[in-house]
Amino acid sequence: MSSSTQDLLPQINLGNTFGALLIGVVLSAVLFGVTNVQTFIYFQTHKDTGVTFFKLIVIWLWILDALHLALVVHCVYYYLVTNYANFNALTEIVWSLKLQLIVDVLIVPTVHLSYVYRIWIVSKGRSRVLPVIIMCIVVVLSGGVAVPVVLVQYRCRLFQDVVTTEWATYLTLGAVTFDDILIASSLCYLLATSRTGFSSTDSFLTKLLGYIISTGCLTSICSIIAVIACAVMPRNFIFLSIEFLVTKLYVNSFMALMNARYYLQAGADSVGSPKFRAGHNVFHPELRIETSQDEKLQISRTDVSDDAVLRITRPIQAVKLPTTGTMQMQSFSLA
User: Fold this and answer.
1) Gap between the Cα atoms of 146 and 76, Å rounded
2) Which value, to the nearest 10 degrees, does the dihedral of the CA atoms of residues 233, 236, 241, 247 take?
3) Residue 188, CA distances (Å) to 122, 130, 313 in order
4) 92 pairs with which residues across the strands?
5) How far apart are CA 280 and CA 167, in angstroms?
6) Could you tell me the pTM of the whole model?
7) CA distance 127 to 123
């Protein structure tokens, strides 16, 4: 072992540097597994809808998410396996660690712009000023701030250069956190002002509000933790491992919101449930008795055919017709 390597040994703490990266990669793999489950659920519940815009977005995000995991796995494998005990190689930034920054720039704006498109749809029939303003802010922060900053970080060759560009980490994570808060608050405002007075619809909207707030807060809190870790511990890789998780959380939060209607509507929409059908069965005998005893119509029980009963019982199913409330629920569906 050379003298330069021996001098480098006491300066490297593998626990909070490459050990932290390893933990981040393991947790990223777990979150990618959750993404696979979410994607499977989405395509199972939309298998009859054909090719749609959001299906293409889901496929695009899944490919980027898989690519991001492959890059960070290669990064850790390069440092801990290929260059095992080669401490000189640990000071250089491998190409896969740089390339995953580009993937980050593709994933986060894709998720944000998809949310903006949903805001545009939900605001149908209202002023479109809000979605236009939000879209402009997201585009400026993503293209005008995140992209140049990531390019600055991409040019770094050594890990010690990352310390001198830590301002780029603050600016990038601060921009995406602001976008998260802006988009979540806008969606909450639009949903809160979309209440119709129907208890089932309002209950669904309340649950959806909580879903949006929780998913938006999750990514924002994780980004803030990464900023704090970078500010407090700039010379270790804990903040880098958290950034790995931020990317995965963006994809997972988007997929969770895509599937939110199918998780929450089971409790909000009782149409088609066994309890609702049992309610129909309770009323059918009453209608038959009422029909047979109607003196004005003078219809005997023997004359009441099955078709007549069906014609009488059909008006009860009118509750299945789309009302203003259910149309609001359908309009917000991310499918």
Assistant:
1) 25
2) 60
3) 11, 13, 40
4) 158
5) 64
6) 0.74
7) 7
CB atoms within 10 A of CB 254: 25
3-state secondary structure the chain: CCHHHHHHHHHCCCCCCHHHHHHHHHHHHHHHHHHHHHHHHHHHHCCCCCCCHHHHHHHHHHHHHHHHHHHHHHHHHHHHHHCCCCCCHHHECCHHHHHHHHHHHHHHHHHHHHHHHHHHHHCCCCCCHHHHHHHHHHHHHHHHHHHHHHHHHHCCCEHHHHHHCHHHHHHHHHHHHHHHHHHHHHHHHHHHCCCCCCHHHHHHHHHHHHHHHHHHHHHHHHHHHHHHHHHHCCCCCHHHHHHHHHHHHHHHHHHHHHCHHHHHHHHHCCCCCHHHHHHHHHHHHHHHHHHHCCCCCCCCHHHCCHHHHHHHHHHHHHHHCCCHHHHHHHHHCCC
Which residue(s) pair with 158 in the sheet? 92
| Six-digit token string for 248 | 């995965």
pLDDT at 138 (0 to 100): 86
Per-residue model confidence (pLDDT) at position 78? 95
Give the model confidence (pLDDT) of 248-291 as tens digits: 999 998 998 888 776 665 544 444 444 444 444 444 444 444 44
> What pLDDT, on a 0 to 100 scale, did the predictor assign at position 56?
94
Residue 220, CB half-sphere, CA atoms under 13 Å: how many? 16
**Residue 27 contacts residue 245 (beta carbons within 8 Å):** yes
What phi, psi does 92 have (nearest 5°)?
Answer: -100, 150
Give the pLDDT of residue 74.
Answer: 96
Per-residue model confidence (pLDDT) at position 55: 92
Q: List Cβ neighbours of 94 (8 Å cut-off, separation of 6 or more).
A: 74, 75, 78, 79
Q: Are 122 and 332 in contact (CB under 8 A)?
A: yes
pLDDT beneath 50, residues of the chain: 1-10, 267-332, 334
